[in-house]
From TrEMBL:
<protein>
    <submittedName>
        <fullName>NTP transferase domain-containing protein</fullName>
    </submittedName>
</protein>
<feature type="domain" description="MobA-like NTP transferase">
    <location>
        <begin position="9"/>
        <end position="145"/>
    </location>
</feature>
<keyword id="KW-0460">Magnesium</keyword>
<dbReference type="GO" id="GO:0016779">
    <property type="term" value="F:nucleotidyltransferase activity"/>
</dbReference>
<dbReference type="Pfam" id="PF12804">
    <property type="entry name" value="NTP_transf_3"/>
</dbReference>
<dbReference type="InterPro" id="IPR025877">
    <property type="entry name" value="MobA-like_NTP_Trfase"/>
</dbReference>
<keyword id="KW-0808">Transferase</keyword>
<dbReference type="InterPro" id="IPR029044">
    <property type="entry name" value="Nucleotide-diphossugar_trans"/>
</dbReference>
Length: 275
């Protein structure tokens, strides 16, 4: 069966007015250009995306002063035949996604420039699920993350059946599905801001989840009903997919995992809890 043609949006912008600590540590201007295993974060993501079939375009969302920094990288990957362009980012993530979709009524998969552990298989699982619904999110379970590294991810959404972590890959199937993006209008930092979570998901849904009275699948069904969409969740077996490069701790874990994949001798990081 042929794959669903999709446009991929890569979110690469830094938070306005905030100097990214990883970029500062690496001596580069933008987080997307922070090297890991010898190459910028965004290169590892583009390595995966540009090997996949039926990718109509890749749109990198980044602030105007960051576009010059990533342009040499993008030029290299344009030679692989997929149109790649930059889109001016907005201070709000939803507005950035809307700008990148250009109002086109086509399927879009969204990821981030720090999602260096993205694999072709995980992308194809998400694409396959998106073909049968309005929107998808990708998750893995707490035990699968901990099986990879106990400190690889610390933020989990607890449901009746398990704790789940986001894997930084989302799908929207056409203009109607942009309603699902509204969940993230206030930034998506739900674990740190319960008010945002309530406004996005609804107080009753949050109460049910907090009391562990609903499973993850039941929670997705309730969210879909709230938004008037069929939303599905792809649950990965590979817990590494929930580990992106957010800070020095997750950088160390991601570097170790990526190094294993690339045949590099990088020791497993020993990270005490709470550091």
């Amino acid at each position: 069966m042929s794959q669903l043609p999709v446009t991929v949006v890569v979110l690469a912008a830094q938070r306005a007015g905030v100097v990214n600590p990883l970029a500062q540590r690496a001596g580069v201007s933008h987080k997307a250009m922070v090297p890991i295993c010898g190459r910028p974060l965004i290169e590892h993501v583009l390595d995966t995306l540009t090997t996949l079939p039926a990718i109509q375009a890749i749109r990198v969302v980044i602030e105007p002063d960051g576009q010059q920094a990533v342009e040499p990288v993008l030029t290299t990957y344009r030679d692989r035949g997929i149109p790649i362009e930059t889109i001016d980012s907005d201070s709000n993530i939803v507005n950035s996604v809307i700008a990148a979709t250009r109002g086109e009524d086509t399927p879009v998969i969204i990821t981030t420039a720090d999602n260096v552990l993205l694999t072709p298989n995980s992308f194809e699982q998400a694409r396959s699920a998106l073909a049968t619904c309005d929107a998808i999110i990708t998750l893995t379970t707490r035990d699968r993350v901990w099986a990879v590294h106990r400190q690889g991810q610390r933020g989990f959404y607890d449901f009746r059946d398990n704790g789940y972590a986001s894997c930084n890959l989302f799908g929207l199937n056409g203009r109607k599905s942009l309603a699902a993006a509204e969940v993230f209008r206030e930034g998506g930092q739900f674990m740190k801001n319960r008010g945002r979570m309530v406004r996005a998901f609804g107080l009753l849904n949050i109460m049910l989840m907090a009391a562990k009275l609903v499973t993850m699948r039941q929670g997705m069904a309730r969210l879909g009903k709230r938004l008037g969409l069929h939303i599905d969740a792809v649950v990965y077996e590979d817990g590494a997919l929930a580990i992106d490069v957010d800070n020095a701790r997750t950088y160390a874990v991601a570097e170790w995992i990526l190094g294993q994949r690339l045949g590099m001798d990088i020791p497993k990081p020993e990270i005490p809890p709470g550091t």
